[in-house]
């Protein structure tokens, strides 16, 4: 049962299965089923990525999605965190989904829906408030959350980019 939800890989990455979907193709003999898996991978220290895999059975679909996410995490930049929350409010957009991410004080926890919660927890965020608008498609929600996290900037980084001192 532990493999269904989350696991740790040898290089310190945690992966979580967000969604498994079944697809049916009607053929001469009846229906042929295939499966799609959406997986998020993170290191609990600001790196997070998602992967998508398709196969005729569930375990190969999950393996493909995990491999896809692990390859993508190597190319992705680190999320700017402020302790165990985020530095400021941000809105992530992808497709028809919008995810609003609001920093929260210690002890708040992760107040988020299923797909968004998985992304935030494997990223290492422990206190945050979220609200989703628009499409509730898990793929769009996960990608909107990751896109929003990658837009975050710390005060020091903004000051350096503007060439001013705090």
Topology:
Elements: H1 2-5, E1 6-8, E2 14-27, E3 30-42, E4 48-55, H2 58-75, E5 90-94, E6 97-103, E7 110-111, H3 114-123, E8 128-134, H4 138-150, H5 155-162
Parallel strand pairs: 7-8
Antiparallel strand pairs: 1-2, 2-3, 3-4, 5-6, 6-8
List keywords for this structure.
elongated, four-stranded antiparallel beta sheet, four-stranded mixed beta sheet, 166 residues, 5 helices, single chain, alpha+beta
Provide an overview of this structure.
- The chain contains five helices and eight strands.
- The chain has a four-stranded antiparallel beta sheet with strand order 1-2-3-4.
- A hairpin with a 2-residue loop joins strand 5 (90-94) and strand 6.
- The chain is elongated.
- By secondary structure, it is α+β, with helices and mostly antiparallel strands.
Output the strand order for the largest sheet: 1-2-3-4
In percent, how helical is the residue content?
25-40%
Q: Approximately what portion of the residues adopt beta-strand conformation?
A: 35-45%
Radius of gyration: 17 Å
Distance between the termini: 50 Å
Q: Structural class of the secondary elements?
A: alpha+beta
Pattern of helices and strands: HEEEEHEEEHEHH
**Which overall shape is indicated by the principal axes computed on the Cα atoms?**
elongated
Number of strands: 8
Residue runs with pLDDT of under 50 for 5 or more positions: none
Number of helices: 5
What characterizes the major β-sheet? 4 strands, antiparallel
**Mean pLDDT over the residues:** 91
């Amino acid at each position: 049962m532990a493999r269904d939800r989350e696991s740790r890989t040898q290089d310190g990455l945690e992966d979580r299965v967000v969604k498994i979907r079944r697809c049916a193709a009607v053929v001469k003999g009846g229906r042929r089923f295939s499966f799609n898996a959406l997986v998020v991978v993170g290191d609990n220290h600001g790196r997070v990525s998602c992967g998508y895999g398709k196969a005729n059975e569930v375990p190969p679909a999950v393996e493909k999605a995990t491999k896809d996410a692990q390859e993508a995490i190597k190319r992705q930049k680190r999320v700017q965190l402020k302790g165990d929350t985020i530095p400021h409010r941000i809105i992530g957009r992808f497709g028809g989904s919008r995810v609003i991410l609001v920093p929260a004080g210690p002890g708040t926890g992760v107040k988020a829906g299923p797909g968004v919660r998985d992304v935030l927890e494997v990223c290492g965020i422990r206190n945050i408030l979220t609200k989703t608008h628009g499409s509730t498609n898990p793929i769009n929600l996960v990608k909107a959350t990751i896109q929003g996290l990658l837009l975050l900037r710390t005060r020091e980084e903004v000051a350096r980019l503007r060439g001013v001192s705090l």
